[in-house]
Amino acid sequence: MTSAIIVYDAQHRLVMVNQRMLDLAGVDQRWLAPNTPLSDVLVLFMMRGLFGEGDPAAQLVEFKRLDRSKPSRRMLRLADGTTLEARVQPMADGGFIEYFTDVTAFTGPLETSRQDLRLLDEVFNQLSLGVAVFKQDELLLYNPAYPRLTGLPANQARTGLTATQLTDMQAARGEFTPEQREEWEVHRASRDPGKRSSMERRRPNGTALRLETYPLADETTLYEFSDVTAERRAQEEAQRRALLLDIVLAALPVGIAVYGPDQRVRLVNVAFNNIYPGHHLNIGDELETELRARALAGIFGPGDPEMHVRKLLTQVARPEAALRRRPDGRLVSLRGEPLPDGGRVIVVSDVTALHDAEARARAQADTLRSMLEGMRHGIALFDSQCRVVAANALAAAFCGLPADVMVPGAMLADLSRAQRAAGEFDNTAQRLGFITTAKLAEAPLNYTRTRPDGSIIEVRTDMMPDGGFVRTYSDITELRRAKDQLSAMLEGMRHGIALFDSQDRLVAANALAAQMCGLPADIVLPGAALADMARTQTATGEYDAATQALEFVVSARLAEAPPRYIRNRPDGSVIEVRTNQMPDGGFVRTYSDITELRRAQERLSTMLEGMRHGIVLFDAQHRLAATNGAIRHMLDMPDSLLQPGIPYAEIVDRMRELGLIGSHQGSVDAVMEKLTGDLRQPARYTSTRRDGRVLEAVRDPLPDGGFILTYVDISGSQPTQDAAQAAINPALQAPLSTIIGLAQALQPDAPAQADQLQSIRDAGEQLLAVIDEMLQAARAGQGVSSHQAG
């Protein structure tokens, strides 16, 4: 074997090279000429790849630092696979010789073995299985997975430890409970060294660990540890699912039976046997035997049982669906399906209740259809896609469509087009966007239209939660006519009438209501709010200061408003407003012009205040209705006793308490007898006051049940005819007669006004009669004795 040789002097300059060195470097003599510095030679070797595999720059630095004063040896593996042995041999003069010898033929098999060994070692260390080799109970060899899987500390596990020592280390780390350690010791002691063995244990961290032992030569045993947690979990999950399946099958209301390829029962649940009582099916039962027993019991109906069995057996390989009536009357649904392995699954269910429910549903549907067709309205049900679900004949008739057009599945847009083609819509209806589109969201929910035959149809749309809707078609022709007639009647009345709903919104009103409220007609429209109307009236000065103080005028709080009030309009007219509640929460307001009535009342009041006689008027309930100023002076009564509404009996009692009836007990008793007598009869009496004045009182009943008391002061001598005539001014007769005539001429607009006018007429006529009577008495010279009734 020839080596490549290169010689350097003490100054590390090249002295000589042999041809083998030139061939190895692949250069000629010029590149390795004498006196070439070592550093340049090393750069050449680096460039020619003689340093072997690795980073060339790092290798160059390493070779420059090499101490060549000492012998050295190293192996270089070139890129082409050649292995060189590089040796440095120093010389006595300070120089040195380098030898490069090709040893590839000697290092090839050894390197291969080393590579195989490294590969095996890498595989051994990368194994997920824990592997440990014991010889005579002493750890000989193990891989990194062994301590990790067994819970041993990696830095303490080492070869040479005994199995007992390793177990102590595991127990110290809590890997074994005393019971588990005892079980492990028993397993080791009872194991046959010459046979394979296996066991499993659950580690504290929940890992499932399987140990398998394999006997080797020379009393050596291989221990293999594997993590079977996933496998055990899968097994447990399979068991859990199997248990769950058993529970589900047991709870299912349908019966299930599974047959294997051998036509024997593999699975059957409780419901299956409950549906077929008396024919209990068990695991392992044969299909043919079971079919024959059922056929003999008549479950498959009349006929030869064997014929039934043969027919059913021929259907085993085919799907089957049947509905059978059992002898006990129950209806059973059966479905059979072949399985890929040649077996068969049968599902049965008792559908008696379902069948009966379907029959009832069909009957109810027929009843509903009869009800729909018997209704006086057209009804059509549409789904969320605007398709007809159901419609009665009247719906098609009101839409002007043939009954065979408005059928389930018909589109709303197609129905609208058919109506337009038939001239069903007038110009007003055609302008509505929903007529020409299927976009229901753009359509009004309620509208009315006039058909070509003159009838008026009201269409209402009610949305449903699923996006569908119901349309109701109603013929409101007669209702509209009735409304028109009512409107005409309202407009012909002499009162203003306004109807409001429970939300205080206007429903209907006549023109006179708007006029008396001082509102433009375009504001008094259906839907207008009462509060908005009141605010408009306030803004236009319709209310005076007194009326504006009423909070109900400018608010919608109807509950706070009086049922009747009177107000003066800016033009001087007087309006009476009455409110009548309705059961549904709405109300009706009536507006009456009582200007002339108020003037008549004022004239009567002025006349009464001008009289020298005391006048007291009581209504039909014997409550004080009116008085004049003279009565207060005659009776010296406090104002609190002369307020309208005070009962007559209360006034009499208070007069007696105050000593306003007589001057002594006898006269008081006589007057009280007159005062508390039959109030429906006329009466006349006199009483002497404590101050000496003598008053004559005349009670005259009124037709409505009320009465008038007239008091005359007759103190002193008996009045002469002239004095009486002077006391009773005949001039009062003229204005009183005028008031009576005016009250008779006025036409009442409401029952309340009629009552007021009648009261004015009655009071006036009664007063006129009293005046006439007193004048006649004065002319005749009549006298009236004290305490005597006239």
A few lines on this structure:
With 790 residues, this protein is α+β, with helices and mostly antiparallel strands. It is built from 26 helices and 30 strands.
Explain the overall architecture:
The protein has 790 residues and is α+β, with helices and mostly antiparallel strands. The chain contains 26 helices and 30 strands. The radius of gyration is 64 Å and the shape is elongated. Mean pLDDT is 80; it is low at 433-439, 717-731 and 781-790.
Topology summary:
Layout: E1 4-8, E2 14-17, H1 19-25, H2 38-47, H3 56-65, E3 72-77, E4 83-90, E5 96-102, H4 104-126, E6 130-135, E7 138-142, H5 145-150, H6 163-172, H7 178-190, E8 197-202, E9 208-215, E10 220-227, H8 229-251, E11 255-259, E12 265-268, H9 270-275, H10 287-296, H11 305-314, E13 320-325, E14 331-338, E15 344-350, H12 352-374, E16 378-382, E17 388-391, H13 393-398, H14 412-421, H15 427-430, E18 446-450, E19 456-463, E20 469-475, H16 477-492, E21 496-500, E22 506-509, H17 511-517, H18 530-539, H19 545-548, E23 564-568, E24 574-581, E25 587-593, H20 595-610, E26 614-618, E27 624-627, H21 629-635, H22 648-657, H23 665-675, E28 683-688, E29 694-701, E30 707-713, H24 721-727, H25 733-745, H26 751-780
Antiparallel strand pairs: 1-2, 1-5, 3-4, 4-5, 6-7, 6-10, 8-9, 9-10, 11-12, 11-15, 13-14, 14-15, 16-17, 16-20, 18-19, 19-20, 21-22, 21-25, 23-24, 24-25, 26-27, 26-30, 28-29, 29-30
